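Researcher: Here's the sequence for the chain we discussed earlier.
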Amino acid sequence: MRNPKLTAFLAPTLLSLAMFAGATQAAAPLRPPQGYFAAVDKFKTGDNSEGCDAMPTPYTGPLQFRSKYEGSDKARATLNVQSEKAFRDTTKDITTLERGTAKRVMQFMRDGRPEQLDCTLNWLTAWAQADALMSKDFNHTGKSMRKWALGSMASSYIRLKFSDSHPLAQHQQQAQQIEAWFSKMADQVVSDWDNLPLEKTNNHSYWAAWSVMATAVATNRRDLFDWAVKEYKVGANQIDADGFLPNELKRQQRALAYHNYALPPLAMIASFAQVNGVDLRQENNGALKRLGDRVLAGVKDPEEFEKKNGKKQDMTDLKEDMKFAWLEPFCTLYTCSADVLEKKHGMQPFKTFRLGGDLTKVYDPSHEKGNKGS
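Model: Thanks. This is the structure I predict for it:
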């Protein structure tokens, strides 16, 4: 028989405990998937023949860049060689920072040379101090470049922040400056890409959401995490019952390539969300799995894409192994078939600077080999 006095005493106590448990759970620090906690492989000393390249000049100008599809019709599928060269030239310093950051972090995680870490942090700190990439004067290509750069840098930085070797322990001031810059840039990316009409929501929005997710974890900001999840759901709910993305089908001969290009940010967001207690795998009846399966089937035989939009598919991009880096997180989210795993293992390691470097080392280290990729 219950003691009414004891019940009366325990009720508020239990309520308080429940509220405390809920608050504790809500306040749990954001974290990346387990592979990002890997320690530095080994620490080397002595001469470093690679040194530190000259730092690219912090880009503080207007983010007004020409599109590589300049002059194309609304399908945005015909490359303009001249405008692409102009784009590459004007964004060279930004891309050098992205690639250099990913490269140095991978080298540091492998070799543990302090000069590699110093080089990376000095570059990022200088760009942070210059308030680079924060211009409010931008066009579509400019705001695209901003979110790509943020995603590249933040996802590389996460390896340093969460490594069990604690490489940032002696660099707290630089870490704070870098994270404050990332945080500020992520706010701008949210402003750039938030609440677009559905007909204008495509792979760019997914890449923006990935950059914000990576920053959310790097800076432990739950509001950024929630925004990235929201954008993921918008993307997942654009995937139709057959695994097609209507806005990517508009890309005519590049429709299959752009479906493939939509997968890396979506798979990475779902992977990061899962380890933070948000399971997105079944959103829109397993939409991400449908999209992945549709793309893999299309690579084998693009006929279904050609039927959908009447255009013979350009398979050039799909011949590059690193374009399938999404398979690493994807095959931890879902059970991949034996033939897909065989395909994945044949392409490894997957190294792509826009996702922070070597994804095979993070998601499938037992199959890491060689040194291909970028």
